[in-house]
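My main concern about presentation is that the manuscript never shows what a single data entry looks like. For the editor and my fellow referees, an illustration may be useful. For illustration, here is how one protein appears when written out as sequence plus C-alpha cells:

***
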Amino acid sequence: MKNLPGQDRAKRFLQQLHRRDLIPHALLFSGLAGVGKKAMAHQFAKLLNCLDPQDHDCCDRCNACRKIDANVHPDMIRVLREGAFIRISQIRELRHQLKFAPFEGIRRVIILEDAHKLNEEASNALLKILEEPPRNNIFILNTPEPRMLLQTLLSRCCHVRFQPLESTWILENLVQREGIEPFSAQKAARLSLGSNDRAQQLSRETLSQWQELTSQLGSLPTLSMSGLFRFVSGWVKKTEDLEEDLQCIKFWMRDMVFSVLLADYEPIFELDPHILHSLNRLPAEDLFELYDHVEAAAHHLTLNANKQLMAEGLCLTIRNIVHGKSHRNPISQVRQGLPL
C-alpha cells in the first residue's frame, strides 16, 4: 500500500487493523471516483493473503501477491455490475461460492465495485450474507457516496473514507505517466476535484469543449434574445452530459468571482476582459448570486427538470446580471415561472 498516492489516513487505519488482527468481515470504501479506492482494495487483498508481509504491508514478491496482481488468485473475487446494476443472480452465485472455505489463501476477499449499483433484491440478498458472514471471507464495498446504499448494509460495514488527491500529484502523474503537455495538465489538475480519473478524462477529451462553452457563455451579453435562445437550443442538443457542463460553468463562475475579488488570482479559463470589466462594477452579493443560480440549476437537473427551460433560465440570468441589467427581466421571470 505504500506505493499508492495519498490516502495516508486510510492506509494507517487498514494497517492498524492488520497489526491487531481485527479485520472486520465487511469494509466500505467511499470517496470520489479516481481517488484510489479500487487500488487500495486490491492492495489490501494482497496484504490479507501475503505470505511474507513486511511491516504490515504486502511483499509484492510471494506467490499470493503475484497471483492477485495477475488476477488469477482463486480467493480474490470481483463483483462487477451487469449492465446498469449488480443483480441478485450475481449475489446468489457468490453465496454458492462462499459455502466452501478459501481454496488456497488465508482469507477470501470479495470486492464489490460500484456497490451503489446493487439493485434492491441484490442488496437484500447481500445483507443476509453479511448478517451471518462466512468465516475467513472479507467483503470490500466501493461506492462514491455511502447514502446511495441501504442503511442496513451500511450498518454491517466498517467505513473507510477516501479523500481527494493532491492536485500536485495529479499534475505530476498527468505529465510524467500520461504524457499530457504541462499547460493542459495544470488546468486538468485544478479542475479534477482531486480525482485522477477525472483529470485524465478532462485532459484528453473535455478541456477544449469546456473552453468553447465558456467562450460562448461570455458572449451572452452581446446576443439578441432570439440569438440567446438559438444558442441554448444548440447547446442542449449538442451536449453529451449537461451535468458536466454545469460543473464547468461553476468553475467558470468561480474563476470570474475570484478574478474580481482577488488581485493575484490566476484563472483557469480564458476570461473575456469585457465581462471582467462589467463584473467589477457589480456588488459582491451579485457575484455570489450568479454562482447560486448555477448551483440551483444543477440541483434542478438532478430532479429531472426540463433541460431546455433550465438552461434558458440560467443563460438569461447570466446575461442580465453580467450585462448590468436587473435579473427581474420580464422574459426571465416568465421562463423561471414555468414548471420544471
